[in-house]
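Ticket #240: bound-state structure for S-adenosylmethionine.
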Amino acid sequence: MSFQDKILFNPIGTISSPYKEKFGIPRQPGLVTAARATLTLLPPYNQPEIVRGLEGFSHVWLIFVFHGTQAQGWKPTVRPPRLGGNARLGVFATRSTFRPNPIGLSVAELCDITIQGNHITLELAGADLLDGTPILDIKPYLPYADALTHASAGFAPDAPSPQQTVVFSAKASLQCAQKQAQYQTDVRLLIEQILSQDPRPSYQHGQQAGRVYAMRLYDFDLRWHYPASGIEVLELADFD
Ligand code: SAM
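RESOLUTION: The complex was predicted; output attached.
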């Protein structure tokens, strides 16, 4: 094989997740533990024996394609949102989605494996994946090898950004309760965890008083704004 040969991979599964658009998805996995996603295995990988033994692992690595940004290509340098969008760093020093090979790597909690004939699904928590993400591989997470607590993190801080306080309007509170049964998810906790990360790019911080933000979750538009301090959820509007 020469270095110019293309390497073809087949997706082994696809993700169904509440995140219907890129904006608002947490920047890394594990930050929004209330987010549930389902990985469905595709033929010819949808064979029960392919997941034999996986149930013993609490977490899995997912290797996937950044299909939502793939068409936009890549550049050797990118502006990490963490640095306010000003400084340029080499793409290999970042977790940017715009990479020479648009491949992502995320760890997720493995909550359940369901096998009904050839319909095989993995229930996951905490994934940072767009709905429809193609999965290339699943590997068990090995704490003794994968958890390197002494590692240094370059420009990325050792901890996620400080969390914002999130409050709900009366209307949004009621809507969360109504959606809870529909999605079998703690919708209020999900929203609280997403917004406490403050999805705005950091260059917009402090500039957007009065502006209403929206992101699509499941089949609704989540709308919020920034009052004098913290974040207020305004409503869960029908998607149009
Ligand atoms: N944990 C992964 C990694 O390190 O490879 C992803 C990190 S990347 C900074 C996280 C962002 O990828 C999310 O905030 C979301 O906007 C974006 N994302 C998730 N799934 C995607 C997909 N299928 N296509 C394009 N972008 C995606």
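RESOLUTION NOTES: The helical segments are 143-146, 170-183, 187-196.
TICKET STATUS: resolved
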